Amino acid sequence: MKTTFDRISGMSAEQRDKLAEQFEKASRVAGAEPIAVVGIGCRLPGGVTGPDSYWELLENGTNAVTEVPADRWDGDAFYDPDPMAPGRMPTKWGAYLNDIAGFDADFFGITPREAAAMDPQQRVLLEVAWEALENAGLAPDSLGGTRTAVMMGVYYTEYQNSSAGNPDTIDAYSATGNAHSVTVGRISYLLGLKGPAVAVDTACSSSLVSIHLACQSLRMRESDLALAGGVSLNLRPETQLALAKWGMLSPHGACHAFDSRADGFVRGEGAGVVVLKRLTDAVRDGDRVLGVVRGSAVNQDGRSNGLTAPNAPSQRDVITRALRSADVPAGSVHFVETHGTGTALGDPIEFDALAAVYGRGEVPCALGAVKTNMGHLEAAAGIAGFIKTVLTLQHAKIPPNLNFEKWNPTIDPSPTRLFVPTDAAQWPESEHPRRGAVSSFGMGGTNAHIVLEQGPEYVSATAASPIPGVSTVPGVWTLLVSGKTAARLAASAKALADWLEGDGASVPLADVAFTVNHHRSRYSTIATVCARDHAEAVTGLRALAAGQTGPGVVAPHDAKTGSGTVFLYSGQGAQWAGMGRALLVEEPAFAKAVDELEPTFLDKVGFSLRQVLEGGEPVVGIDRIQPVLVGMQLALTALWRSYGVEPDAVIGHSMGEVTAAVVAGALTPAEGLDVIATRTRLMKRLSGQGAMALLELDAAAAERLIADRPDITIAVYASPKQSVIAGPPDQVDELVAMVDAQGKLARRIEVDVASHHPTIDPVLPELREALSYLAPQAPKIPLISTVGYAGSAPLFSADYWATNLRNPVRFSHAVHDASAEHSNFIEISPHPLLTHAITDTLDSQQTSRKFHVGATVNRDNPETLAFHAQLAAVRPPAVAAPELGSEGIEARVVSAPPNVWQHTAYWMADHSAGREFSGAHPLLGLHVELPSGSGHVWQSDVGLEAHPWLADHIVHGLPVMPGAGFAEIALAAGCEALGVPATEVEVEVEVEQMLPLDAHTRLTTQLVRDETTGELRVEIHSRSDAGTWTRHAAGRVRAAEPTTPARVTASPSSGDGTAVVSPSDFYTALRRTGAHHAHAFAALTRIVRSSGAADTEIALPDEATPHRGIVLHPVMLDAALQGLAAAMSDSALADTTDVTFLPVGFGSIRVFGEIGRRARCRAELVSVLSDSGDAMGRVTLTDDTGAVLAQVNDVHLKRIQRRTVPLPLSQKIFDSTWAEVPVPTGTPTTGSWLALADSAATLTSAQDFAARFSAPERRVITAELGDEAGVREAFATATADPDLPPAGVIVFVDHPEFDGTDAAAGLEHARDVIWGIAGTVRAIVGSWHGKAPRLWLVSKDGLVVSNSPEHPDGAGNPGIGSLKGLVRVLAYEHPDLQTTLLDIGTADGVGDPATILATEIEASGSGSEIDDVIAWRGSTRFVERLSRATLPSPPGQLVVRKDGSYIVSGALGGVGMAVVRWLVDNGAGRVVLNGRSAPSDQVQTDLDQLSSRAEIVTVLGDIALPGVAERLVDAAEEGGKPLRGLIHSAAVLDDEIFVGLTRESLDSIWAPKAAGALRLHEVTVGKDLDWWVGFSSIVSLLGSPGQAAYACANAWLDGLVAWRKAAGLPATAINWGQWSDVGLASSLRFSVLDPITPAEGVEALGGVLAAGFSRVGVARLRLDRAAAAFPEIHQIGFFADLVGELETDDVDEDWGGPEALKEMDAAEINRVVVARLRRRISAIMGYSDDSAVDTAQPLTELGLDSLLAVRMRNTIRGDFGVEPPVALLLQGASLADLALDLVRQLGLAEEDTSERPNALRDRAQQRAAARQRAASRRKVGPRS
Hints:
The protein is α/β, with parallel strands linked by helices. Helices cover 35% and strands 20% of the residues.
């Protein structure tokens, strides 16, 4: 046996040389193979999102360098012009991407938890790689299993450094999320690629080296396709700081490549990926070739002048080797993208190397440097230069360099042809193809050079040159848009529409269709737009994006279509003038069918079908209508068949059955036309005899209706909901009236002969005789008869057609029969007549089959367009592209928009830098020892952002610091102050005030020695945003001797007096008391209760973040204390609704040993206080052996009522925001509308709307709003026509423009409008008892949409704003009216009120949630949403001046006096009080006391009356102190429902609140105020039944504040909830609110003013009560965000543990189990929204991996006591599968479903049965 070594070593030297020469030759041949660049993806600074925007940046010479963004680091804080300044650098500039935190994790099936752990470089590169493949015309998800290589340059790991602050937080994803190998491996994994995946790190040359390696891999046939590129992001200052210390960075923030000013580079960032393919393969596959790699080389500097110094000889060598590999002369290269960093050392060295190789030649050679545009992208620098070179070759244009004025003095370009381009220039003329090159040199010495050549000549989109093989005759193109969800599909449609209007405006639609239909991934949800030109395409795509219908638009639907197609042919009524005329011209197959039918038609019918269709005139007379319809139906059938759609069955409705018989092959076309011609000729004799009507009755109801009327028969069984009757006209009309009186549809059908009725009997013998010659054939296609034929003659013979005309049409029966085997039902007719009947019948089928009901053309849209839309719905474009040249098409792949990413921000918390109070202990914080040596202070941030696990300790819906947290802080403080371990410290702690937690909650802990007793006292304080200090806990710390307590003997786990309690049931019981222990605090795994005691087992959940500095983890101690609640009886907990027990005192806390993540606990109740119900107890923590680890004695459990829980300001503040929401998909509406106008101007608007909106099925009646009698009369007219019942009432509002002066008329008009609307509502509810019409209030430019910078609003109008209050109240009082305020912006001239209103009306029937306040700005639709307001960080400062004066209106009441006291307490110098009557004795006494601290002045008078406001200002300033602030709190309250409102009540309520505010505004406009505050009411924000006038007046005040703010004046509106004990608001008694105490109110007032809000609601809102009291809020979009919070809570409320499931029925079991699983799985996988987990979607598609599967199994076991196997989870089980598995294991009743068998589910059921048997053997019981 000879080895290879043996054979070679046995050769002679000459033989070995020849062999080596052969290998050398083979390598040169392989290395010379050209590689095509077929796709590009890039994300670069300057807003570059792809090659098109990159070229635009280059061509325009854009400078993308900016200062360091604030989301990276504080550039100013790290800046110092002195390069030697420690910790500082002489640069604060760079080039950055816009959104590095954003990532579409859901698209890639990556959980939020893993996404947050992923280096943003991984995320960006993954998306850019996808975009590159799409740019190449390759569907990324189609590459699975292919030999596709992934080679990427990646360098720094700055993201990993962010988590270094607390190693305990590092999890498994920290490794995969930061590994460079996973950066490339993840791309291969997600796409299923089998080629090599290599991460390359050669520093700055990484990405160009990656391209070189990818080309080599392709040449060696190691791979067939390659993704190559790189990524680099600058996340932290440390790297930049280090480079600055090297002196590499420019202190001037610019790269001056080759310039005399070169002083270093600027750092940039970005990512780029190219798709590479062997050129021979690319040509074979018809790929778009963007450029060609001719050759490349890589080498190393070796030993040079320094590790980071460049080496000229090595650079010359790598260039030379690359040219040799490319086999092209250096002189043929006319552009070199240089490394070009702009350093004084590097530029001359690089130029010398370039000059030595490229310097000679006649044609100039440009030296490019993209670093001058966007800095040095380091690991991505090479790919940025490579893509630039490809684009330069493609466009035949050389873009300019920036920052070049004159050459570096050490560079002499004169002997060379090299130059630096400073202006964009055309490519120089040359005999060679365009060639360019790219250099990239790594800081470690690795150099790379690549030589490129142009691809085929680039054709600009603007050239719009003809495409070979594409007809110039206008056609219809179908554009398919798909998405994983409907929302993603809509986003893609919008992006494609934007592109077609922009860069793609001149790209042929054939190319666009070819690209999006065949060269993009096809997802589960698809939609199509058919268009003849760009304008139609854009219109259709925008309709699709907005969820609207339109010509050529097929709405989103499942990509999978069912099998089996039925053609249905309708009867008379589908005809219309002009039908078929366009099809004759534009559809050859249709024209051919008409021409083939023409001779027979002329012979049998007697006139020309083609002439009728070409003429476009109305077809009149039954003897012409029906034959023409049959001809149309036959031609339309041929049209469908020409596009490959064949019927599997046919059905005919009445005369349509003739066409069906011809299509099925039972009759010839001649026979069919003879049948229809004879039939209609005979029927014409009977014209005028009989009538027919459509009734909204099922067959049984219709038969009962006509039972006593023998002359009436059922003519058509149309659907399960509708029937058609026939008979004498008077009797038919009588029945129509009877059915109409029942509120159901009933109308006459326009026919002049009552067919399918005895009326037809006289002509039947003659019909049989005329057709007796028929000899029908057996149908070749199944024909499902609607006749119910029982005759002896053959089917489709003369007797059959007589029966067809006489018997009822059993259409619904036929459709029902067809639905058993067919899914697609297509009506073949000129206009659809049967859609509703077909749909109703299919909807009634008991099957899981999905059906499609379609038409062919319709009279409302262009025929060809309508047909292709219907075709696309049944037969969408195929996924696979047609072969080149097939179907006469030579279309090309174009750069259509890539996938539209739905970004969510993911970021790992940075624990290593920037933490203000970082210390050894996470809760105690930063330690400061006091100078006296007798005390210590610590400051910490215990907020939820730093400690998210604390959010799981919830008391009455609010995250609060557990008492165990205060205990741990005190314990840690004692250890640190005494300098001893925890075993030598004893702590006593008393919790005095609960601490609600915000994102940031700062604590100050102080430990001091009492000078008299010598005791160490610890106190823990917080400080509010308003600056108020609160002491939350206090205690004593003392040194203790180490000791070892006696072991605790284990209690019996079962037996007499003990009971095993399910932890899940226990936590459910606690939650009902208001103590909610979410994931991190649900630490009890076992509970055994005995008399007055409980033994528990504790395991810290994964969510309970550990830290090595923690002594006794708060979750561990809290779980131990939970044992005291477990020791209580079930009845004790059940009796505490809205009251919970919390530990508020710890008499002694001792730690005796190290406490890990598991422990056992003995909890003992010592006593229960009879008067308060409080309890005392002790807990002892032990290990498994009984060794005592910690003990807490004298634990005080206090009963806490919900309303006493202190709410931080952040939890009490609300605001409304504007969200951009597209119009829901609607349906055409019918009925009557009443349009009311409040002025002459709006009357014109109402009449314009009426003229444009009216149609045969819609009518609009106009009237004046102010005339209540006229309104009633108009509404009566609107209700008079039963065919068109009232559908809407529209009030057009035109308030006088508000300019802040002389506004009394506008205020009065606003009141008049409210009064007029009250009369309108009275008219509606008093005179109409059917379905209520929707009430629309339409205004212009009245609301301020603050989040619309592209459409800046004016200042708004308070009069329009007042209507928002009315909308809110009517939502409660009359939810059926669905009152909506629609405000249309007209400032930019885009908004057309009539069109927008019509759009909203059409959308109102969508069945979606109601948007009740809508604003259109331009073409963008905004809706108002209630949200929680956010306090600014850091908070501002409250300003109350000692030398200032202040006015308070309504000051002599309870709220006013609380405000006055607050002002004085905060140092106000002078306070002027206003009230309508003299102060009471008690108030006067209080004022006398306050007078000693401030100047107090009282001015009486009604603030709404002239002169009173002026007197207030005079009184404020007469003492010499300028007016600096005003609070308007005057109000009158008078409860009354809206329809019972009187004018007097309305006026009395408006006067103080609105008119008073206006007076105060007018007299203070010129004053230099710090603040101007209007006390508004929560009812104007949330609404409240019975408070319409009060809500409107307060909403007017809100509008005034908005106007003042827009005018640059100080203004704040506070929408107060009810106050306890004082003020008008205390009488509101709004059940969804808990009252605010006066102290709480004034503290909130200070916080609001310090925060600088312009408007904010302050209330203790009870969402649970809101849902119970007002379920209608679930349907109102305004409340959607807060309802979402409520629904999250509801899930837990339903969970009563596995025992509770036994009492439920199967459906309820399934609902509760699914809800519980959904919540748990969402939390484990990191989704913030439970709805993100689709019950039917495999969990693996959502990102489930083995790590998460194990966690999921453990969590589910804790909830249910049984567990799913990890294998089931990883085999593609969905949430529904998992729920079924658990239900079966628990032996519970299963919900019956009609779903088809599922193999995975079957296996799951089999395993579940086995596990149920096993589970029954391991139920919780005795343990050894």
